[in-house]
Amino acid sequence: MPERFLPVVGSERPLPPPGPRAFDTIAIVGLGLIGGSIALAARRQWPAGLVIGVDDKRVIEQAMVRQAIDVAADDLVVIKEAELVVLAAPVEQNEARLAELDAHVPGAAVVTDTGSTKRAVMAAAAALPSRFTFVGGHPLGGAARGGIEFARADLFCGRPWLLTPASDAGGSVPERLQRFVEALGAIPQTIEAAAHDRLLALVSHLPQITVSALMQVVGEGAGEAGLALSGRGLRDTTRLASSPAGIWKDVCRTNADEIGDAIDRLIALLGELKADLRRGQTLERVFAAAAAWKSRMPED
């Protein structure tokens, strides 16, 4: 088997004691970095449970090699008995899958997603039959590169897992779902969908877009020879530049207003810096504020 598909061993952080099994049968639709990591963690915590995976055949093969899933198919027909359905594909694919659940899951089920925007998927979930309980979800764990080959069971340890329950559910999260998230090592936090999208535009979406634009400007200006002379600072700063565009196109389409506002604020500040480069007073102010805010960020 290809070495890059072997599970990471030795360096993984321990998961918390699992407690009673939250769901006997879990279906994960989308087995990339996030979905694959959820599958690995769930199988580690509850070996007697059933983890079903849905993705294309190539990804399913890799997930089987990683022993992340018990049963798999490239069609939703396999999720019939699921008690928990996790939609872990790109945002707009998750929305499309919601419309298919009624035909494939005849019983009651908790449904959640892992997307980086919440307003659009919450609106789509409002059309689900009443036997489904939908809670938007967003685990804030990730890596610079996506794909099942980079999945790991401890990806969510100590990381927030944002949950956006529907307003008609009284803003409450099913206790089973909360226990499931905690058993994966994450810290569940409840947030309203609009507040989620506003916050994530600043702490996630703007940094990704900015870093990718920065890498293009630097790369095209310096060329390969110039990049060979770059130091660790540029490498660390542009770590996110390896992210695939496909996922981010969905994120931007479903959060364009909030991301656009964040970009405008950054452009305005860059304009102030540009206009004051010779005096440096704006630079001093920005650097001081940046250092102060950076000191308040939690350590990894």
Q: What does this entry show, briefly?
A:
With 300 residues, the chain is an alpha/beta fold. The chain contains eleven helices and eight strands.
Summarize the topology:
Layout: E1 25-29, H1 33-45, E2 50-54, H2 57-65, E3 71-73, E4 84-87, H3 91-98, H4 101-104, E5 109-113, H5 119-125, E6 132-139, E7 160-165, H6 175-183, E8 187-190, H7 193-227, H8 232-237, H9 245-254, H10 256-275, H11 281-295
Parallel strand pairs: 1-2, 1-4, 2-3, 4-5, 5-6, 7-8
Antiparallel strand pairs: 6-7
Characterize the overall form: globular
The secondary structure category is alpha/beta
Mean pLDDT: 92
* Total domain units: 2
Instruction: Please give the radius of gyration in angstroms.
Output: 21 Å
Instruction: Please list the strands of the largest sheet in the order they lie side by side.
Output: 3-2-1-4-5-6-7-8
CATH level 3 topology of the largest domain? Rossmann fold
Strand percent estimate = 5-15%
Number of strands: 8
What is the assigned CATH homologous superfamily of the largest domain?
Answer: NAD(P)-binding Rossmann-like Domain
Distance between the first and last residues' Cα: 32 Å
The low-confidence parts are: 1-10
Order of helices and strands: EHEHEEHHEHEEHEHHHHH
| Count of alpha and pi helical runs | 11
Report the CATH C-level class of the largest domain. Alpha Beta
Helix percentage: 40-55%
Oligomeric state of the chains present here:
single chain
